[in-house]
Structures are given as structure tokens and as C-alpha cells.
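Possible regression after last week's pipeline update?

I re-ran a chain I had predicted before the update to compare outputs. Posting the input and the new output here so someone can diff against the archived version. Not blocking, just want to make sure nothing changed silently.
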Amino acid sequence: MAPESRKPDLASTDAGRWFAVAVGSIAVAGSFALYLAAARIPGLETLLIPDPKFGWRALIVHVNLALGVWFSAFTAGLFCLLPGVRQVRITPLAQLLAVAGVIAFSATLFVESAEPVRSNYVPALDHWLFLLGIGLFGASLGLGFLDARLVRSAQPSQIPADARPGLRAAAVAYLAAMATFGAAWATQPDGLLPLAYYERLFWGGGHLLQFANVLAMVAAWLFLLSKTLGRPVLQPGLSAILMTLLLLPCLSGPVVVLADLSPQVFTELMRWGIFPVVSVFIVLCAHAIWRARGSLAKGSLRSAAFVGFVTSACMTVAGFILGSLIRDNNTLVPGHYHMSIGAVTAAFMAVLLVLLEPLGAPLPSARLRSLAVWQPLLFGGGQAVMAIGFAIAGVAGAERKAYGSEQVVRSTGEWIGLSIMGLGGVLASVGGVIFLVLVAKAYLNRRKPAH
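New output (post-update):
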């Protein structure tokens, strides 16, 4: 019986370590984001980034920390809270290797010979150290997801029953993305220039990672609303069906690459594979809130769980709208994806704030608990303002992917949009700093395990 009594502690420990990797990555990424956002404010660009290549290396490290590490490590943390028996303790090894990978690819920022490559989804630095680090991190996450938790279990868990299929599907989507990266690497033609090489290497799997992020976000919504309503939002069977529909496009990823089909296939899979199912989830969540409006516990709507859900869901809808407006390769594109990834981040931040106490690290004061309620809204609101600024500048013709002396502001609309973007970036950074402070305060207040 002794080993059985330790399982919940092991699950929480494993989850907490993945959350630490995730929070550490977003802390570093956030500092880069503030730096880069300020560097796009007209008048400051050449002062803050006199060398455009350093700005690009900083942006590439920022993107891989803020997207690849934050999203994947946080999803791995939630995955560890699923019920299931771990036969072999591989998670600590996976976590150690993942951290080594993060350190390796981040250190490439300071390698002057590492040429920035503006590949989509996983921008790269053309250097062996970057490839070693990013490959080690990806393989370590995959190792962490190969676990009995992939199989349905009726055992008790901190994750509600309707959210569990989403986390399992997110893990499968991640593994499908890794398989797609592998297929692309194994079939690379000879003689490709760096941009073409990395674009083909990361294009398909990068699309599939977006499915994994969205699956984890929707699972986070169901977790947050279960805390608000005091019960699961959906029947587990219905949730499993919808999550499976969201996952299915991912399973074709390696086949598309090995069959050498058009890269546009991945764009169409993402365009038509995410919006419909997520829209159904939003409608079902809104219906559940409406049905429960008369029986909600006092103060449940003024909680980090509810505020986080509403912020994330509204940003998701706004991201869909901005995406539908894209016609050219301008800053409307980063406006769309900053809104969309901000929605995932706001949901994840709210989930961790809710989980702090169950994981044994409660916030130590009423003031901090009150601040935690509004932190997701502050971050999400800032990220939304940033995205809208990008969109305004894009409509006015601002070029995408231009930093430092490469940036040329040609119109009043671009100047206004980029200035709004910079303001939103600062607000989002303030929200991010508050999140980090809250997590740090909770960590320092953590309870020692009973002996």
C-alpha cells in the first residue's frame, strides 16, 4: 500500500517540475518580448537594436521559448495530473534533458555566426547548437508523453473527466508533430538553402503543434469552468468525440510529408480543422454558463477560473476574426497569431493560478489572491491591444518581420498601429510580471510534505 499512497505526490511533483520549466521559459521570453516590442516603437528601433541580426536572434529565441517551451511543457504538466499508473519513472530524465535542450538552443543567441532563419512556426538559428537544443527538447517532451496516461482511466484526478480527453489528444497531437518533423528531416532534398531547408523541416509539424496547443487550451477551458460551475461542463463522451474530431487532422501529418503533397495541405487542415470544433466548444461552454446562472456559488464569477476562461475565449474569437481578414504578408499576420497564442497563454496562466493551492503552494494573502483574479485579464487585455496594434499597422501596410534599422514607417497609420502595439506589449508584460510574482510568492509559501 505504500507505493499507492505516493502516486498522487509523484504526479504533483512531476507536474510541478514541468510547470517550473514552462514558467521559467515564459519569464525569459517575456523579457525578450518587452525588449522587442519597445524596439518597434518609432524612434527607439535603432537605439535598442543597432544590429538587426542580434534582434532577429533574440526574436527567434523568444518565439521558441514563448511557444515551443511554454506551451509544450505546460501541457506536459497538465498531462502528468491525469490518472494512470507509471510503470517506469522516466519523467525526471525527460525533464532534465528538456532543460538541457532549452539551455542549448537559447545559448545560440550569443553565437555571432548563427544565422537567423525566418522559417514559419519554428524560426531557427542555422547552427548545430540550436538544432541540438531544439531536437533534444522535442524528443524529451515526446518521451514524457509516452505514458500510460494516454489510456483512459476512471481513477480520481485533479483534472475533471470532460477535460481529460483533450489532454490525451494534445499529447497524441504532439507526438504526431514530432513524427512529422522526423518525416520531413528524413526526406529533405539535397542542396536546399537554409530558409528552404528549415521551412520544409518545420512547416508541417509546426502546424500540428497548433492543434496540440488548441486541444490543451480547450481542456483548460473545461477545467476552469468546472471550478466555476462546481461540476464538469460536458459529458465525457461528448467531449471525447469533439476532441477526437479536433485531433484527426494531425494523424495525416507524416503521410502528407512522406507522400510529398503540397505544403498548402497543412494550411487547409489548420484553417478548417480548428475553427469549427472550437466554435462548438465555445457555444457549449456559454450554454453551460447560462444554464447555471441561477445556481452559481457566490463570487464564482469573480474568480481567476472564470476570468481566465472568458479572457481566453474572447481572444480566441478575436483571433478567428483577425485571421479571416488576412490578405497580404503584413503585420496583420502577427496580429492574428499574437491574439491566438495569447488566448492559450491566458488560459494556461489561469489554470496554474487555480492549481497553486491543490499543488501545495497557496498564495499567502488575500491581496495576492485578489490580484490573481484579474491577472489573466490584464495579460490578455495587453496582448489583445498589442495584436490590434499589429492589425492596424498591417492594414496601413506595415511590413512583417522587420526589426531595428530594417523597419521603415511610411504612414501615419503604421505609426499609430505600431505605437499601440508597443503599448499593448508593455501592458501584457506587466500582466506577465504579475503572474511570475504570484507564482514565486506561492512557491515560497509552499507546504512541506507530511512525513
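Follow-up from reviewer: compared with the archived run. The mean pLDDT is 88. Marking as no regression found.
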